[in-house]
Amino acid sequence: MIVVTGATGxxxxxxxxxxxxxxVPAAQVVAAARTPAKAAGLAALGVEVRTADYDRPETLSAAxxxxxxxxxxxxxxxxxxxVAQHRSAIDAAVTSGVDLVAYTSVTRAPTNPMGLARVHRAxxxxxxxxxxxxxxxxxxxxxxxxxxxxxxAVARGTLTGSAGDGRIAFATRADLAEAAAxxxxxxxxxxxxxxxxxxxxxxxxxxxxxxxxxxxxxxPYVDLPAEQYRQILHRAGLPEPAVDLIxxxxxxxxxxxxxxxxxxxxxxxxxxxxxxxxxxxxTLRA
Length: 286
Known about the structure:
The protein is 46% helix and 14% strand. The chain is of the alpha/beta class. The strands form two sheets. A seven-stranded parallel beta sheet has the order 3-2-1-4-5-6-8, with helices on both faces.
């Protein structure tokens, strides 16, 4: 039995859908969610839905009961909260006798300078300390992290950021979810680590040029000092933690934090990763 946490999120839901596409019987898949009612669509596919609230550790052992494999999808929130939540899930996996935990980490977690990598380093270490058989999925930067802003940028006439000429080996959420499903259906995965990036690294100027070509509207990329970009995000109404994450990510991108390309994702997919042009076109048609 395979348990997928965060099953009502966009990533977890797609992992379950890909498990079913790969021929895993619905009766052997569990959608673990904080709010089970939101998983009604998955239940309609025959998937069992269980309550799994990272903030209520007592729900986790029950959610993992009988599981051979658990996909631990990283949570959201402050660093301290997330690490505590992940440790609760790790403890529950140990208690439940899970044979394999797959954890969604971040690309190059041990050396990644981004602030968000701290949680992933701590969680990877907690998994190792617990002695859990585990496979680590070090997910690269979601293409959607930047393409989601394109409709608004096209409307304004500029794409702004603080990433300079830094390159980003974008990978779509769908590709990463499909790769996670592939790993969960493969044998002998304990002890493996995958660094999952797109096949090509792009600058934000190139992203803007692609959006301009697709929309027929000129769209220059305007690079800003970090503090000025921070002020723009504040004025847009984003909460402080989100602003911190976005600005820090762009600054680290400008230093090359996400420029590396690996073949791990392509190997798991058995095909090239989804081109940036496809995601841009889909975003601007939506």
